[in-house]
Structures are given as C-alpha cells and as structure tokens.
C-alpha cells in the first residue's frame, strides 16, 4: 500500500459503513479491513491523529452544550434576587462565581477577583454560595447569607474576611460577624432557622448540577463557563471579549 493514505481518506471510507449510509459486499469489507491494517502498520501515527480529532470534536460538543446550558439558565445565574451582588451592581458585564469558603482554589482566586473588581469599576459580580466541602462549609455559607440578608452592604467585607481565616469553623466565622459590628447570636439564629437561606443554597446546588459544574470554584462570564482556578488574566480577557461583542467589535 502506498504511504499516500491519510486518516482523512481512510475515514472517508469508514464513515459510510459506520453510519449505515451504504452497504458493502464481503469483498469490499475485506478490502477495507486490509486497508485499515496496512495503514495502521505503515502509519501508526494516524491513531494519535484520530484520537486528537475525536477529542477535539468532543470538546467542541461539550463547550456548545455548556453555552446552551448557560443561555437557558441566564436569569438564575445573573438575576436571582437572593444571590449577593458585589462590584458595581449596575455594571455592564456580569461575572458569576460558585465557591466554597473551605476550597483552597477559591481562596487562591479571591485576590484575583478582588483586584479585578478594583481595576474595573464596571463589573457586576454575583456570588453563588455552594458549600460542598462539609458541615463547616455549610455553616459558613449560611452565616454569609444571613449577613447578606441582615446587612447586605457588609456582605463583601465578610466574604473577603472568611478567606483570610486559617480555619473556617463556627467560632472564627462568628468572630468575623462580631468584627463587622453585627450580633453573632442573631446572625447564627437566622443562618440556621431561615428557610429562605436553605432554599438559596439548594437552588445554587441545582443550578450547578444543571450547568454540569462538579467543583469549586467555577465562573461564568457571558456565554463562557470556566471550571476551576482561572489562569491569570483570563477573567479580564473574557470581560473585554463580552464588551467587544456587545459593541460590535468582535470577540
């Protein structure tokens, strides 16, 4: 067999058979098998090429499915009145973050987020409390939402302080509440007893599942879902891309 055969040519032969678009007699099928064996023997690199092609197609399909999921759940992501909003509430681009206070990657992302919001005063930031790392995470998220309901103007300061704690436990969390001038007893009671807080946490969990998010942190910017810790500058680039797209500048 000549070495001019490429994976594309071989795939052109195989696709009709795989798709049932054509029927081959025994001689044709034998010839195809012979071509496959000879090609794999003389050009083993096409196996890697084929795997790369299939992986790229799979990634494209997954990305498109995520974009569609984000579009379907846009209102829940960006406009849920029970989710805390920071940055500039009237900003022209919204970033959404799913996070857990005990997640080390969320902790690593926190300074990145803070610096971006300080540099760009036109970003609206939505906080999705998603406690997935145990009872301490759940308690911290509940208290954070209680602070938001009691004194929404202090939520962002509370949020940042929790990431500075060496240990996210009941006593340290309530100490931060006291440092912000709030009543820790009243906040804890509300955190544990307010059914709206439990409902918000449950809603965020369902939203994460619907989007296919399986860990923290996860960010949504425009149509883009970024699982895990973003690379430096990634959030800012996506914000600029969303702005450019809206103004007809591409992106």
What spatial order of strands do you see in the largest sheet?
1-3-2-4-5
SSE topology string? HHHHEEHEHHHHHEEH
Work out the helicity level.
Answer: 55-70%
> What's the pLDDT, averaged over the residues?
88
**Which stretches of 5+ consecutive residues score pLDDT under 50?**
1-5
How would you describe the shape? elongated
CATH fold-level topology of the largest domain? Glutaredoxin
Question: Which sheet architecture does the biggest sheet show?
Answer: 5 strands, mixed
Q: What is the domain total for the residues?
A: 2
| Rg on CA atoms, Å | 25 Å
Total strands: the figure is 5
CATH-scheme architecture of the largest domain: 3-Layer(aba) Sandwich
**In terms of structural class, how would the helical and strand content be classed?**
alpha+beta
Tell me what the structure shows:
- The chain has helices spanning 7-19, 26-42, 45-72, 74-78, 104-119, 135-150, 155-164, 170-179, 184-193, 195-211, 234-246, and strands at 85-87, 93-99, 123-129, 218-221, 224-227.
- Helices cover 62% and strands 10% of the residues.
- By secondary structure, the chain is an alpha+beta fold.
- Residues 1-5 have low confidence and may be disordered.
- Strands 1-3-2-4-5 form a five-stranded mixed sheet.
- It is built from eleven helices and five strands, in the order ααααββαβαααααββα.
Question: Can I get a quick summary?
Answer:
By secondary structure, this protein is α+β, with helices and mostly antiparallel strands.
């Amino acid at each position: 067999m000549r070495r001019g055969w490429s994976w594309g040519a071989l795939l052109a032969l195989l696709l009709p058979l795989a798709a049932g678009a054509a029927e081959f007699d025994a001689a044709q099928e034998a010839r195809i098998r012979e071509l496959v064996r000879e090609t794999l023997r003389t050009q083993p690199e096409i196996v890697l090429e084929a795997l790369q092609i299939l992986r790229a197609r799979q990634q494209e399909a997954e990305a498109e499915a995520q974009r569609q999921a984000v579009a379907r759940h846009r209102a829940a992501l960006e406009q849920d009145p029970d989710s805390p909003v920071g940055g500039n509430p009237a900003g022209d681009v919204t970033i959404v973050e799913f996070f857990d206070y005990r997640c080390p990657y969320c902790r690593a992302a926190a300074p990145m987020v803070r610096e971006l919001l300080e540099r760009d005063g036109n970003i609206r930031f939505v906080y999705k409390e998603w406690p997935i790392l145990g009872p301490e995470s759940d308690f911290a998220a509940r208290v954070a939402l209680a602070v938001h309901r009691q004194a929404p103007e202090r939520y962002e300061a509370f949020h940042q302080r929790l990431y500075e704690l060496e240990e996210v436990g009941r006593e340290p969390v309530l100490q931060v509440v006291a440092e912000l001038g709030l009543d820790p007893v009243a906040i804890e009671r509300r955190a544990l007893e307010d059914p709206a807080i439990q409902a918000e946490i449950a809603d965020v969990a369902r939203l994460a599942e619907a989007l296919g998010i399986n860990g923290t942190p996860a960010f949504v910017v425009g149509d883009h879902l970024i699982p895990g810790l973003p690379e430096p500058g990634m959030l800012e680039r996506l914000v600029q891309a969303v702005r450019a797209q809206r103004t007809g500048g591409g992106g």
